[in-house]
Amino acid sequence: MKTRIALNSDLEFLNGIMKASKAYWGYDIDFMKKFMENFGLTPDYISRQSTYVASLEENAVGMYSFSRNKDDQLELDNFFMHSDYIGQGIGKIMWEHCVETAKSYKDQFFLLWSDPYAEGFYLKMGCKKIGERKSPMMPNRYPAIFRCNLK
C-alpha cells in the first residue's frame, strides 16, 4: 500500500469515499446529509490538516487525516475505507500505514473518535477505549474515544 498527501483536486473523490464508507453502515439519507455538511472535507481543511490518500495497486482505497486538538494532542480526524474494500483485510494494512505516519509526528499517542460500527476494528488494531463524547449528529449517541499508543 502507498500513501500520499491529498491535494485539492482529490476533494470530490475523498468526500465520495467518506460518504460511501459511512453509508455502508445503513445510515439514512438525512443523517448522511448532516454528516457531510458537518464533516465533509474542504479546500481549507486539506490545506491546514495532514490528509492522506491510500492506494493499493494504483487504486485509491481510502483516506485518513490528522489534526491537533485544543490540548495540542494528535488526533485521527478521519479514517475511511472505500466501501468496496470494507471487510477484505485492507483496512488493517491502511491502519498500519496510518500508524507509521502518526509516528513521524513524534507523539507518544494519538486519539480518535469512533463511529459505533468501527469500535471493533479499533479494538482489534490495539487501541484502548478511554471515554465517550456526545455526538453532534444524534442527541442520544455517545461515540467512543480511543487512544492509540505509538511507543
Morphology = globular
**Beta-strand share of residues:** 25-35%
> Strand tally, please?
7
Q: How would a crystallographer describe the biggest sheet?
A: 7 strands, mixed
Tell me roughly what share of residues is in helical segments: 25-40%
Count of discrete alpha- or pi-helical segments spanning 4 or more residues? 5
How many domains, in number, for the residues?
1
- Classified by CATH, the class is Alpha Beta
Description:
The chain has 151 residues and is an alpha+beta fold. It has a single domain (2-149), classed as Gcn5-related N-acetyltransferase (GNAT) (Aminopeptidase). 33% of the residues lie in helices and 30% in strands. The chain has helices at residues 11-23, 29-39, 43-48, 90-103, 119-124; strands spanning 2-5, 50-56, 59-68, 74-81, 109-113, 128-132, 144-149. It has a seven-stranded mixed beta sheet with strand order 1-2-3-4-5-7-6. β4 (74-81), α4 and β5 form a beta-alpha-beta unit. The longest helix is centred in the middle third of the chain and has 14 residues, at 90-103. It starts with a strand and ends with a strand. The model has no long low-confidence stretch (mean pLDDT 92).
